Amino acid sequence: MSRSSSILLGPEAAMALLTAAVSLFCSRHGSYSSRDVDSLERLMWALPFLAVPLAYATIFVPGAKGWWWLGRVNVALFVALLVSANKVVGGFVAPGAGPSAGAYGIVAVISFGVVFAALANAVVGALILAEARPAFAEWFRAHRFMGSTLTAFAAVPIGAAMTFVLGAALSVYVGVASLFNR
User: Under 8 Å CB-to-CB from 31, ≥6 apart: which residues?
Assistant: First the structure.
C-alpha cells in the first residue's frame, strides 16, 4: 500500500471525518435552546463510543498492523476527541456567559476515551505482536483464556501511561497557550 493511500484510509482521515461531522452537527444545533443543548449533551456522552471504534477500525486497512500505526491512531484519536468535545461544549453556553459546567464534559470525554483506548490498545497491541512474532501467536492460540486475561490486565498500565502522557502534553499546551495570552 502506498504512503498516500495509507494516510487517506488511516486513522487521521477517520478522525478528521468524525470531527467534521461533529462540527456540522454542532453548527446545526447551536441555538442554545434546551432541545439543542440536550442533543449536544447526548453527543458528548456518545463521542468516546463513536471515536474509539472508528479510529481502531482502521487496523483493517492493508499494511496498518504496525507499531507506527498504533502511535498515529492514539494521537489522531485524542486530538479529535479534544477538538470535538471543545466544539460541543461551545454549544452549551451563550457567548459571554462565562465558565460553565460543560467544561467538565471535556474531562469526561477524555477520561472515557482513555479507558476505551487503553482496552483497544491492549487488544490491538496483541494483534500486532501476534503478526510480528509467530511464536507469540502460537502461544496465544494454545492459551486462549490466559492470553485474553493478560491482554485485559495489560490495559491497566497502558491506561496509566496514556493518562500520564496525555496529561503532560495538555500541561505543556496550556502552559504555552497561557504565555501567549498575556
Answer: none
Give 55-89 pLDDT, tens digit per residue. Answer: 999 988 887 788 888 889 999 999 999 999 888 88
15 φ, ψ (degrees, to nearest 5): -75, -30
Print burial letters for 83-122: b (CB count within 10 Å at least 16), e (below 16): bbbebbbebbbeeeeeeeebeebbeebbebbbbbbbbbbb
Query: Could you tell me which residues come within 8 angstroms of residue 44 by beta carbon, excluding any fewer than 6 positions away?
Result: 85, 88, 89, 105, 108, 109
Give the C-alpha separation, 170 to 69, whole Å. 22
- 9: helix, strand or coil: coil
**pTM of structure:** 0.84
| 159 CA to centre of own chain | 12
Q: Cell match 478528521: residue?
A: 16
Rounded CA separation 171/177 (Å)? 10
Query: At 1, which amino acid appears?
Result: M
8 Å CB contact between 83 and 110: no
> What pLDDT shows up at residue 6?
58
